[in-house]
Design a protein that fits this description.
The protein is α+β, with helices and mostly antiparallel strands. It contains one helix and three strands; from the N terminus they run E-E-E-H. The protein is elongated, with a radius of gyration of 22 Å.
């Protein structure tokens, strides 16, 4: 497998995630030997989902007046 970040060599590795809220403490994935990027089945699944446009801010700056202090 080739790393998507740096095109380096990826090896299969076993990881322990103590902060995972789903109750799973360990998982198997791929780790890049060059940059250390980690990929697992969840990451691959998220990359395959269609991306949606980021939410636009409701804040508008039209008509804003900039005041300068004179010296």
């Amino acid at each position: 497998m080739q790393c998507q970040r740096c095109q380096g060599c990826m090896i299969r590795d076993h990881f322990i995630d103590l902060l995972n809220g789903s109750g799973e403490l360990d998982f198997t994935g791929w780790r890049c030997l060059n940059c250390g990027d980690i990929t697992d089945s969840v990451i691959l699944r998220h990359h395959q989902l269609p991306s949606c446009a980021p939410a636009k801010s409701s804040r508008r700056w039209w008509g804003a007046t900039v005041m300068h202090s004179g010296s």
